[in-house]
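agent> Task received from the user: take the single chain below, predict its 3D structure, and emit structure tokens. No templates, no multimer pairing.
agent> Plan: (1) validate residues, (2) run structure prediction, (3) serialize to tokens, (4) report one or two observations.
agent> Step 1 OK, no nonstandard residues flagged.
tool_call: predict_structure(input=
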Amino acid sequence: MTQEFRAGFVCLVGRPNAGKSTLTNALVGQKVAITSSKPQTTRHTIRGVLTTDAAQLILVDTPGLHKPRTLLGERLNNLVRETLLEVDVIGFCLPADQKIGPGDTFIARELAELKAAKRKRPIVAIATKTDLVDKQRLAEHLIAIDQLGEWDAIIPCSATRGDQVAEVGELLSSYLPVSPQLYPDGVLTDEPEAVMIAELVREAALEGVRDELPHSLAVVVEEMLPREGRPADNPLLDVRVHVFVERPSQKAIIIGKGGSRLREVGTNARRGIEALLGQRVHLDLHVKVAKDWQRDPKQLQRLGF
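)
tool_result: status=success, residues=305
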């Protein structure tokens, strides 16, 4: 008897910097979500697609649920709640290198409310970043997770080292509904190229900058045009991108002394974009100030939130 094929949507939730994007990329086997050591990096729900012989797991990566301090924060939280109501399975990421804190308790309460809803969704608690702790600390962490709420399963993994990543994929898949395949073979994400490019630029801009910057950074791809007069076997794509910050002092940080920092951002982002598109790219970056955009509804809308 052949096993029935399963397919559906899985949402990874957790407080900021819980390893959700890294796990998404590890499960898919390719970079579809930007990662950063800075919390609150993800701003769009990105779908990574993992297809095996037995199942198709469509991963919806969400921003970290957190106590919002700005209009942007409120909108990101609403985005997560809306996503949770639409998926088949929820994976709750809790990093092993940090003790269970108020942020985790806040999310556990939200998930408990969801359990009480008409359509119950299976919730798998995932202890992430196990490579950063010893066995004793991991055991304590797993006990704390068990005491935090009612979970359908608990599983530890390390996305950076690849430990138990396949097992996480199999466990999440086992809770999916019986369904035909939803995406064709070979599809890894349904995110538009312009959004992926903007995310790669934002990831490069976030590396090695001070803590006040991540929330204040927004990236918009203004245009993507093939360079005219290029030979067919050696095309070049012109990509013009605007990087928005909230204050002139932040603009100075991004640009760096004599433009050195911006050149570095451009070089790193271009590598990622060329790998994504499979062709040469000329990246034109411009840094602009959009004063207090996180608190301004009109500017939030213009920047895609």
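agent> Step 4: summary for the user.
The longest helix spans residues 260-277.
agent> Done.
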